[in-house]
Fold this sequence. Notes:
Layout: E1 37-46, E2 50-61, E3 66-77, E4 89-94, E5 102-110
Parallel strand pairs: 3-5
Antiparallel strand pairs: 1-2, 1-4, 2-3, 4-5
Amino acid sequence: MKTKAKKDVGMGFVSPSKNCVDAHCPFHGEIGLHGRVFEGKVIKKNPHKTVNVEWERIAYLSKFERYSKARSRVKAHNPSCIEAEIGDKVTIAETRPISKTKKFIVVKVHK
């Protein structure tokens, strides 16, 4: 498979310098981005180009009139040109469903 030229995915994301041949890469493949964008920490890495991303949020409990901490966890596609590792802080963006549980793509790793 040939490497494709970088494309502008919009939403203010800069293309990585490394090339890849991943069909699900927003920078080198055919998939587009839309919708929500989150920042979180990679807590688990799977061999099938998948990472689990977690972030904390504040949830209001009206019964007790207080706030509590809650966590959100989602699975995201990890393109070979980005290669996020466990412990990295990443930005993920929503896309069409890639599989049963993956609906996000890692678009940036924060140093």
